[in-house]
Amino acid sequence: MSSKSYIQIPRTSRFAIVGAGPAGVHFAHLLAKQGFNNITVLEADDHVGGKSFTVTEGNIPYDMGTVLLTTSTYGPVFDLLENEDPENKPVPFPDSPKKNYCVIMGSSQTGVSDKDNKTFTDRRVWSLKQTMLDSVPAFLRPITPLMFPGIKILLAARRYRALHEKIFGGKFKYGMPPSPPSDWSLLNMTALQFLEKHRLKALIAMFRISVQLNGYGVLESIPAFYAIWWMHPDLVDQSCRAHLQKKPILFGTSKGFQHLWETIAAKLSVEKGVKFLVNAPVSKVTRHPDSTATVEYTQNGILGNLDVDYVVMAVDLSKYVNIIPKLTSVESKLFTTQYTSSVYASTLYKSDPGPFEFPMEMFPDRMTPIAKFDESAGNFGHCHTYRNARLMLRPRPDKGNVTWGPDALGRQQRVAYQFLDRPLQDAVIEAKNFTQKLRGDFEIAGHSNVEIKVQKTWNYFPRFTQQGLIEEIPWKIKEIQGDTNTFWLGSSLTISNL
Ligand SMILES: Cc1cc2nc3c(=O)[nH]c(=O)nc-3n(C[C@H](O)[C@H](O)[C@H](O)COP(=O)(O)OP(=O)(O)OC[C@H]3O[C@@H](n4cnc5c(N)ncnc54)[C@H](O)[C@@H]3O)c2cc1C
């Protein structure tokens, strides 16, 4: 947790954890394992799980937040599932072995019109075609076999690993790089500039799908640091191998991600006496000179005060750090000057089946780079991905691998994702705008008689600006863990970073 090798804390210390998302629940779990026995977790919402949010219907979990794991980078989460929530099994998403499991729609560059709801390209084929466009000169394309971009991807993956090790001074397991890069000039640019500058254009298509379409920023604007953090060389290698060996690397879970955190919380409460207060937003944390703190919250309209020795801020710090009105000057510099985030909307809806039904449909060209944003013109926030959890978890392709058997007949329920490259402003107004945009996209997709069931607008992917990264804020936060009796967990990039 901390870069300090050891923080000595008496086991009887009183802890208040603000936020029962994955980070807060996991931290409570770690504290209880260490023998701490006075832990209270306060959650503003009416349930634990934070952005791991699942709506379950007919035994199908529709994950509207955290949705997938990858084998190479999520080892600790697989362990947590196995040990703490064994009924919640990892389920492979056979994106690689099964043709047309994930399809690319609306990519005009590769010959599919955005308005055409009947033309699609299997993701692997799209990746090869797109890599051809990204990395093979136009005059050579007509005589270049489609296998050639595949070889370029493999060679680029090898160069990428070497560069990654050079930048971070060696190998490390997936997670936040243990120390900042020694030479920021290799990284002081956007993700796209990074791939272009370092002769890695053959990886652009892979990054578009894995980084951009997961909402971790548009390649044209996201700092290169975040793209190469998420795209650990092990993940890049494994993606290449998965395509060659036709093995799945993506997994969902049979009961959804919220179930994992709820199960851990329930066990902690029964077996370790950890108190979970839901519907209990914390309004203020006051840290006293005698190294104690008072946490003020409301539950069912009643004000509550909790006196503790340690406060754990397991909330999105880009939005909620001001729960502590008196920050030290160091904290203030770290948490209030260089934070930014994006808006992500996920909408669960039901409709008549479209012309085709696939487990995952993606529109990479619909995630507009920030430079092209014009909100008044409305060219933003289009739906970029549809996920049909029933097909994802129970794929049964029939002959020709195009339709998905009886599960794809009748009313279909999917989650639609929309992205905006700026922090969340007013969740209610934003939701209205997103819905309006989405209705137009449903028409293009041929999804008729739509019933919107649940919509969430998230402040998503809290992160530091390029300047904040150069100032090495993420590593400086590690240095202050435990100071002023406060721990800072923030809202992590993915649950594998907890
Ligand atoms: C649409 C979407 C898709 C995603 N897909 C993936 C994926 O496939 N794989 C992956 O690994 N990750 C994914 N993520 C990211 C992952 O969900 C987050 O990294 C993770 O939830 C962060 O956990 P956290 O506990 O740090 O923050 P959060 O999940 O944001 O939890 C913070 C909690 O704090 C509570 N809170 C806020 N203010 C207060 C207050 N004043 N008092 C009390 N409580 C408060 C909130 O209600 C919330 O429950 C996705 C996220 C979204 C939104």
TrEMBL record:
InterPro entries: Amino_oxidase, FAD/NAD-bd_sf, Zeta_carotene_desat/Oxidored. Residues 23-327 form the Amine oxidase domain. GO terms for molecular function: oxidoreductase activity. Signal peptide: none annotated. It comes from the Eukaryota. Pfam families: Amino_oxidase (PF01593). This is FAD/NAD(P)-binding domain-containing protein. The lineage of its organism: Eukaryota, Fungi, Fungi incertae sedis, Chytridiomycota, Chytridiomycota incertae sedis.
